[in-house]
Write a sequence for this structure.
């Protein structure tokens, strides 16, 4: 065992750092999906497309900002601006024009409306950004590398992935927990999640809360995408990959738990990146295997609360 | 309506044969559509119980790869099809024992997860599956006869049509039987079903195994028609397409899936030919239109037209 660690210790360290950065991104998408499902009771298949569009928009906006002479440090706030624009425009549009018409319909039809939206948004990306890879890693180059002390050695790792990604994720987690528990609007959202009818009877305008929550979830997805854009080159199919992964996180964590979603994202992110380094064939498998294993033991998810059955 | 449905089924089958004779290139598209229709009949059974599987591409690709693996050893279409169907049913039984404990989003997501596990195995185990390159399937014999390519395509079209009619009849009988009635009770009030002494899990499990059998059969027809199988057939978007077709055609009757599948494949072919980069978006718009304006699907439209005339 000691010999193995001597040999592979650095690799393991790198896998853990990579996993942390990856988990931060997964958390951003999954928590938005979770929030939207909690309030609207619609599982949004197009959530992954918002992530992909956020990523593409951030890359394009960054290139535009650089070409119009903005200083190099601007490449970081540009990511936030792109996410806010994508989520703030597409979110309300989708909720008002589409979802609003189907709240009374069967869950199957709601699921399919978002699937149709997914198909439309996937092609929209191809029409706008083409099928060639798009890359803009200005934000990552800006911050340079950081040597992480690891035993007697150092692991050089990009400061962007080390500080910015986990930093934003932790800020989102803390901010969201504070918002939902301490502010009036947040408490209203929790009330609608717990019991829509009772909340409406207390005079809560559910339709406003739906719009607010969906827009918020869309911004979180777009932010996840925008933050990921400096670390990877963007290709079509990103949305389809992201959504199945965040489904796995949400189902494993159980519904309605933000801290649970964070822990699950961490677990899935770390195990995936360990698989990338030590067992590459299993890379894509790990999230689903974890999900199946968890649901086998706890059908309501790790942190979910079992619902009582209707008679 | 029962007699009308039978008449419409016979009329529809005749129309498909006519189309296949008049436009030979359509024969391929129609065979695929009929096969997908068979798979969608399985989705329809689960929809009766209010459950959406977002992972039935698993059985489609499992059936297709079974054919691809076994075709060199036993090149006989009429043996390959039932073998693929039975193996797929066995897989459905194993997975069904697990997923039939879950409902709603957990049912959907578990099916999705398991199908994605199979998809990535297909993609990663390059040594056996040739990864994303896929496996070529040779032309197998049909009833022991070595057919020309053209004749074989006709044979597959005919087989798909006969199977579609037979399985359509079966599903109609099944849904009208006590088993089928119990299935829709899972959707309305599952607990009451159990109060009556009927095990809800077993009812759902039997429908699940049937849907796996149909998925495997459909996959085997697709493999022998396209004669090239790739992991893409098992990707989650294909599962989504199957549910799409079920809703497009209308989940109310056994004819719906075929109406949906033929429309879906034709729109896909024409949209892909005229707008190469936007065919998916066009299908998406069609789906939105159907859900927002005719939530009972194309079959629902046919039905209400019929009612108005009568």
């Amino acid at each position: 065992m000691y010999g193995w660690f001597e040999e592979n210790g650095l690799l393991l360290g790198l896998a853990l750092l990579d996993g942390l950065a990856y988990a931060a991104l997964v958390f951003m998408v999954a928590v938005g999906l979770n929030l939207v499902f909690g309030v609207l009771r619609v599982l949004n298949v197009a959530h992954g497309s918002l992530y992909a569009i956020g990523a593409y928009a951030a890359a394009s906006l960054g290139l535009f900002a650089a070409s119009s002479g903005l200083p190099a440090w601007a490449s970081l706030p540009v990511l936030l601006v792109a996410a806010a624009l994508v989520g703030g425009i597409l979110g309300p549009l989708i909720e008002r024009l589409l979802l609003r018409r189907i709240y009374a319909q069967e869950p199957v039809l709601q699921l399919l409306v978002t699937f149709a939206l997914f198909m439309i948004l996937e092609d929209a990306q191809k029409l706008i950004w083409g099928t060639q890879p798009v890359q803009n890693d200005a934000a990552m180059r800006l911050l340079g590398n950081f040597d992480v002390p690891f035993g007697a050695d150092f692991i050089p790792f990009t400061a962007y992935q080390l500080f910015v990604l986990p930093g934003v994720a932790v800020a989102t987690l803390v901010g969201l927990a504070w918002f939902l528990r301490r502010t009036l609007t947040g408490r209203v959202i929790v009330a609608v999640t717990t019991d829509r009818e009772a909340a409406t009877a207390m005079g809560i305008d559910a339709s406003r809360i739906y719009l607010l929550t969906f827009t918020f979830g869309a911004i979180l997805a777009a932010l996840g995408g925008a933050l990921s854009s400096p670390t990877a080159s963007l290709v079509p199919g990103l949305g389809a990959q992201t959504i199945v992964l965040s489904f796995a996180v949400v189902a494993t964590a159980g519904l309605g738990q933000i801290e649970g979603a964070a822990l699950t994202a961490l677990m899935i992110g770390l195990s995936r990146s360990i698989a990338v380094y030590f067992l590459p064939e299993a890379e894509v498998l790990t999230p689903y295997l974890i999900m199946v294993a968890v649901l086998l033991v706890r059908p309501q998810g790790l942190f979910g609360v079992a619902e009582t059955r209707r008679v | 309506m029962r007699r009308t449905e039978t008449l419409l089924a016979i009329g529809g089958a005749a129309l498909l044969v006519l189309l296949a004779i008049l436009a030979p290139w359509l024969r391929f598209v129609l065979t695929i559509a009929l096969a997908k229709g068979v798979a969608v009949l399985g989705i329809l059974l689960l929809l009766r119980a209010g459950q959406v599987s977002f992972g039935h591409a698993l059985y489609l690709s499992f059936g297709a790869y079974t054919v691809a693996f076994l075709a060199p050893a036993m090149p006989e279409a009429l043996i390959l099809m039932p073998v693929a169907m039975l193996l797929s049913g066995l897989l459905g039984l194993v997975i069904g024992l697990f997923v039939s404990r879950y409902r709603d989003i957990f049912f959907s997501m578990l099916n999705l997860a398991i199908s994605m596990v199979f998809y990535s195995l297909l993609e990663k185990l390059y040594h056996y599956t040739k990864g994303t390159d896929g496996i070529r399937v040779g032309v197998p014999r049909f009833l022991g006869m070595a057919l020309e390519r053209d004749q074989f395509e006709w044979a597959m079209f005919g087989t798909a049509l006969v199977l579609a009619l037979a399985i359509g009849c079966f599903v109609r009988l099944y849904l009208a039987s006590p088993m089928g009635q119990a299935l829709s009770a899972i959707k309305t009030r599952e607990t009451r079903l159990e109060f009556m002494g009927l095990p809800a899990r077993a009812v759902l499990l039997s429908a699940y195994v049937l849907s796996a059998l149909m998925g495997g059969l459909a996959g085997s027809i697709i493999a022998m028609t396209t004669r090239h199988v790739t992991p893409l057939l098992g990707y989650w978007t294909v599962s989504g397409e199957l549910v799409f077709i079920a809703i497009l055609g209308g989940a109310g009757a056994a004819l719906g899936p075929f109406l949906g599948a033929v429309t879906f494949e034709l729109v896909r072919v024409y949209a892909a030919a005229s707008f190469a980069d936007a065919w998916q978006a066009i299908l998406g718009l069609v789906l939105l239109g159907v859900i927002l304006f005719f939530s009972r699907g194309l079959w629902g439209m046919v039905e209400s037209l019929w009612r108005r005339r009568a």
